[in-house]
Amino acid sequence: MSTFGGKTAIVTGASRGIGRATAVRLAKDGAQTVLCARDQNLLQSGVEEICKAGGEASSIALDLRKPEAPAKLADFTLKTFGKIDIVVNNAGATKRGEFEELTDDDWADGFALKFFGAVRLTRAAWPHLKASSGSVINISGIGGRTPGPHFTIGGSVNAAMLSFTKAMAEVGIRDGVQVNAICPGTIRTDRFQGRLVKFAAERGIDLERAEHEFILQHQIAQIGEPEDVAELVAFIASPAGRMLHGALIDQDAGATKTM
Question: b/e for 11-27, b at 16 or more Cβ within 10 A?
């Protein structure tokens, strides 16, 4: 049997980037996978990619900022596949910018999706994860450990995600649910591509040179790929990764310099 044969996984923020790569990776190893994000067309494309490769997947378009949406996602998964074994809380992007220019709405929006969406989905899925001795993997970010002046919202949200992970890992010991977090560094997503275009324009250089200078400026080994994070998710949730519990894993090409 394949690694995740007979298991069901929920992946949020699954329309593109890390989320889509993770959904495809888990399905490749046999998981029945539910993709969730707001864009139904992109979600359907992901489902078709998985099914074309011989996997099994379904999707539901929801805005996980809305308090009732995570429970709807859990219910949809149970109605579609009958169980929940893996939850990957990946949805959520936060606004960057100068602190004085960030509004209350910007802060509220940052917490609404990435933090409260993850909290609510974990709560809705928890009884089923207990029943299956399942796994929760929170996709946080290195800003939660190393904040920056243009990432005040994201750093705060990611720090909250890391604290939530540690707290739920304690609950997971009691209830038999594995809980961990991954802190990706710079990953080649649409969002990073937008930053790179701006970086290149400001310096009057092409994108290849801009990427090289970005790597040097941030003192990292390389830019990561969404598939890199997906591979780590798959390892953590597999039998080989069950010793990982309450781990906050920096997957950042050396960006985090502190111990």
Answer: bbbbbbbbbbbbbbbbb
Mean pLDDT of 28-39: 98
Mean pLDDT estimate for the chain? 96
Q: Domain segments of the chain: what residues?
A: 8-187+224-251
Tokens standing for 108? 């509220």
By C-alpha distance, which of 140, 153, 135 is closest to 250?
140
Give the span between the Cα atoms of 20 and 190, in whole angstroms.
12
Average pLDDT over residues 89-93: 94
* Cα Rg of the chain (Å, integer): 18
Side-chain-side CA neighbours of 74 within 13 Å: the count stands at 23
User: Would you say the C-alpha torsion 179, 184, 187, 193 has a positive or negative sign?
Assistant: positive
Q: How far is the C-alpha of 96 from the C-alpha of 115, rounded, in Å? A: 16
pLDDT digits (tens, 9 = 90+) for 181-196: 999 999 999 989 999 9
Q: What 8-state DSSP symbol labels residue 167? A: H
pTM > 0.70 = yes
* Residue 94 DSSP code: -
Nearest in space to 150 (alpha carbons), one of 198, 112, 190, 90: 198
Name the CATH code of domain 8-187+224-251 (choices 3.40.630.30, 3.40.50.1110, 3.65.10.10, 3.40.50.720): 3.40.50.720
* pLDDT tens digits, one per residue of 115-126: 999 999 999 999
* DSSP secondary structure letter of residue 14: T
The pairing of strands 86-89 and 135-139 is: parallel
- Cα–Cα dist 50/23, whole Å: 8
